[in-house]
Amino acid sequence: MLKISQVFGPTVQGEGSAAGRHCLFVRTFGCNLECAWCDTAYTWAVTEAKAARTHSGRLYDRDDPAYGMKPMEPDEVLAQLRELWDVERRPTVVVVSGGEPMMQQRDLVPLLDRLHGWGNEVHVETAGTIAPVDAFDAVVTQYNVSPKLANSGNRPTKRYRPEALAALRDTGKAWFKFVVTADLETDLAEVDCIVADVAIPSRRVMVMPEGSDARTNTATARRMVDTALARGYGLSLRTHVLLWGDDPDR
């Protein structure tokens, strides 16, 4: 039984190396981190203590019918996806996000195996704190790995697991995306340390400005793009934010 928050689409992938591509989303419920600026805190901030870790302090309802936790069998998720798009006959990209989907990687295998078998690309979004198991890795096309920096508010031993990042790197399927705030120098210095420590090829690294509105997103991007390019890093905007603001269904 899977813990699911949302199944939605078609939309465009908003972030990372696949930005702009046609896709569907399966958003899992639950996370092992508590990022202060998280834009999907409804998947985990369901206690007073967890809500207090976010900038907004908002407490979400675990049983909310729209964004709360829904126990679902893989076939139920497939049925919802097929209502949105003919994933069996018109393969596309299916993004499995969260929360942290790799907390459920063994339970996700039957779902991803079907999607993969139909020719869909399966992209998994993860914070990179959990290494993939073989059965899961076999049905994943791409990992979009977003290691969390100090700006996330998580303690270092919780958010930074170099052995898990190395395991994802070694699959040959991982792209690494770092959220950078207005404190550019501090954040980019930390990115540099992680990239060097884990031996991540710079061509596989993208930096992305934090911000849930278009103005903040683009302003930070303009400030950091030249510095990122000088390091060999790519730049990711948040396409969905530029198009639809902070609409959780897009």
Automatic annotation (TrEMBL):
Gene3D superfamilies the UniProt entry points to: Aldolase class I
Record-listed [4Fe-4S] cluster binding positions: 31, 35, 38
Binding site for substrate: 12-14, 27, 97
UniProt cross-references to InterPro entries, sorted A to Z: 7-CO-7-deazaguanine_synth-like, Aldolase_TIM, rSAM, rSAM_sf
Cofactor entry: S-adenosyl-L-methionine; Mg(2+); [4Fe-4S] cluster
UniProt domain Radical SAM core: residue ranges: 18-246
Pfam families hit by this protein: Radical_SAM (PF04055)
Pathway note: Purine metabolism; 7-cyano-7-deazaguanine biosynthesis
Keyword Metal-binding: yes
Keyword S-adenosyl-L-methionine attributed: yes
Binding, S-adenosyl-L-methionine: 37-39, 99, 146-148
Record note on cofactor: Binds 1 S-adenosyl-L-methionine per subunit.
Keywords attached to this entry: 4Fe-4S, Iron, Iron-sulfur, Lyase, Magnesium, Metal-binding, Queuosine biosynthesis, S-adenosyl-L-methionine
Catalytic activity, as annotated: 6-carboxy-5,6,7,8-tetrahydropterin + H(+) = 7-carboxy-7-carbaguanine + NH4(+)
Positions of Mg(2+) binding: 40
EC number: 4.3.99.3
Subunit structure: Homodimer.
HAMAP family in the cross-refs: QueE
Function recorded in the entry: Catalyzes the complex heterocyclic radical-mediated conversion of 6-carboxy-5,6,7,8-tetrahydropterin (CPH4) to 7-carboxy-7-deazaguanine (CDG), a step common to the biosynthetic pathways of all 7-deazapurine-containing compounds.
Annotated family: Belongs to the radical SAM superfamily. 7-carboxy-7-deazaguanine synthase family.
Protein name: 7-carboxy-7-deazaguanine synthase
Organism the protein comes from: Streptodolium elevatio
High-level lineage: Bacteria, Bacillati, Actinomycetota, Actinomycetes, Kitasatosporales
